[in-house]
Design a protein that fits this description.
Blueprint (H helix, E strand, L loop, with lengths): L3 H24 L1 H10 L5 H23 L4 H24 L22 H16 L9 H38 L1
């Protein structure tokens, strides 16, 4: 059992991030389709259906993780999605392919693959595991709701900042090489 505030924060963060990822991918489906193709892990005939299925699955997981009857199913789906994404990133990094867009938050982000994406995703997988834990049964008070909301906002902002830093890391490395 986990405190319901911690459960709520984990569930909220997973839901917000997955829903944001799905929306960004759906906004430019053609570019996301290119991202899926660039990973070079599935036959071309599967690229278009996957480019639809991935944001749909992210949306379903985001909605399901929020509500108690579907919390575990939503957290499990989110964890499986993140594990598959992490494996796809790791395979391409092992192939030496850092120049492709991760497609994590859609093509608008334009983030190349990086070794930092793997631990970032592992942290998110841990959050899905926390979201799947049964919350302790106790009534939430008004301060709990404030804590829960603030926790989600702070965690999402930390994720955004870390994502920006990860995205800038290759540029910083290039600047250091040029400076030396």
């Amino acid at each position: 059992m986990i405190d319901p505030v911690f459960s709520g924060i984990a569930r909220g963060v997973v839901a917000v991030l997955l829903l944001a990822a799905a929306v960004y991918k759906l906004r430019d489906r053609a570019a996301f389709q290119r991202s899926v193709r660039d990973y070079d892990l599935v036959a071309d005939v599967l690229v278009r259906p996957l480019a639809w299925a991935i944001p749909l699955a992210e949306s379903v997981a985001a909605a399901a993780v929020v509500f108690e009857p579907t919390r575990v199913a939503g957290a499990t789906l989110a964890g499986v999605l993140l594990a598959v994404f992490t494996l796809a990133i790791a395979v391409n990094l092992a192939r030496g392919r850092r120049d492709i867009d991760c497609g994590c938050f859609g093509p608008a982000q334009g983030q190349p693959l990086s070794g930092w994406l793997v631990p970032r995703n592992l942290v998110l997988i841990v959050l899905t595991a926390i979201a799947a834990l049964p919350p302790a049964s106790r009534a939430l008070n008004p301060l709990d709701y404030v804590t829960l909301g603030a926790g989600v906002v702070v965690a999402v902002l930390l994720f955004v900042v870390s994502n920006v830093v990860i995205g800038l890391a290759p540029q910083a490395a290039a600047l250091r090489r040029n400076h030396d």
